[in-house]
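thought: fold this chain, then report.
action: predict
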Amino acid sequence: MEQPELAQYLGVLFFHLNAAATTGGMLVLSVLLGKRGARTPLKDTPYECGMEPVGHGMIRFGIKFYRVAMLFLLFDVAVVFLYPWAVAYKEMLPISGAALLWAMLAFIGILTVGYLYALKQKAFTWHY
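observation:
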């Protein structure tokens, strides 16, 4: 006999309730059993290897840093897709190897056009 659709999610519901109860229990126990002490401004300062903290903790980075980081992530994730493709290509070579090869060449071609566009826009240079 088939279960109703909502009954299939009882395991997921139980998992979430268990996670919430465990997290809440840990928080409540830490408040109840934890040491209570006076909080002084000196105790709340960040630890700087025994030195007094100098300056603000939040420094601003230029947009160039974020642009290079995003481009790195874009091309890095694209390269990650090459390994599963190679495994699938090896297995699918007798069936449709040419189609998979052309699909990957199109993928690499699109990445190359994007890379050349980024080079033309000088996205990888730090000094303008």
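thought: worth noting. The chain has one domain: 6-120.
final: tokens above.
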